[in-house]
Structure formats: structure tokens, C-alpha cells
Amino acid sequence: QQQQQQQQDQQSQEQTDTTTDSSEDYDSHPQYSFAYDVRDTLTGDEKQQEEKRDGDLVQGQYSLVEPDGTRRVVEYTADDINGFNAVVSKQLVDERSRASASASATASSSRYNSYEALQSQIQTQAIAEAQAQAASYAEAQAIAEAQLQAQAKAHAEAMAQVQSEAELQARIQAETQARAQAQQLMEQFQQQYKQQQQQQQEQ
What we know:
Number of strands: 5
Order of helices and strands: HEEEEEH
Shape: rod-shaped
Largest sheet: 5 strands, antiparallel
Strand content: 15-25%
Structural class: alpha+beta
Distance between the termini: 209 Å
């Protein structure tokens, strides 16, 4: 019975191993990527690394600051055919800081340029507003001059009308005087005619 129990245990274990092997997932094209950046402001130590895998090809780079103050940068690739290949380069940390300073100077220059552009835009807008105000002032001045001309014309017409009324009154007075003189002449003529008639009758 013990032997049968051991055989059953072995069979169940083999079945378990078989099912475990068959249930494993195999990735034929693995992919991953990671990156980190560690900086110590007290010691000035910096460590950076980036790596990514696409199938059998692994690419990455890492950099760290050496004790002598230089930065070591290692770029590497690895695959099944070519194996592991790395390219090591060194640069001064001061050069890196100068490069970053140059980048910041470029950024400030771009900000300065944008400030100049903004200032130019503001000046252009102010000039446009001043021109618009000048145009509106010129328009208002033209309207005022037109109003003055209209007032002067109306005054001239009124004066002409007054003059015409004065001329009309003078004409009426002249006609009245002429009629009065004509009436006097008619009366004188009638008196003379009557006198002549009386003289003829007396003779």
C-alpha cells in the first residue's frame, strides 16, 4: 500500500509539472524601457541611465561623475549576433555646466527677443491708436470747419436776405414817392385844365 501511495504521488507530481510547463507564457518579442536620474547636490555626484529592449536588441547609455571631476558616458548595445558593444567617452563637468549655461543664455536671449517683439508690438499698437486718434481728431476738425462754413453760409444768406428786404423796402418807398409825385402832377394838370376852361368860358 505504501508503494502504491508513492506511485500515485509521483504520478500526480508529474501531472502537476506537466501542467505547469504547458501553462507558462513565452514572449518571443520582449520589450521594456527604463530610465533614472540621480543627483546629489552636496557632493555633485550624478548618475543617469536609460535602457530599452526591443526583441533581441538592447540599447542604452549611462553616465556618472568620476572622482577626478570628469563625466564618463557609456553607450552600449547588445544582441545575440554582435554581442555586447560599448562606446566610452569622457567630458569635463565644467563643459557640461558651460553648455547648460549657454543653453540658459540662449533661452534668455529668446526671452529677450520675445520681449523685444512684444515691445515692438505694443509700440505698433500705440502708434496705430495714435494715428486713429489723429484721424478722428482730423475728422472732428473737418466737421468743425464744415460747421463753421455752414454757419458762415447761413449768415451770408441771412445778410443777403436782410439786404434784399432793405432793397424791397427802399423800392416800396421809391414807388410810393413816385405815385405821390404822379398824383400831384395829375392834380396840378387837372387844376390847370379847369382854369383854362374857365378862362375860355369867360371870354
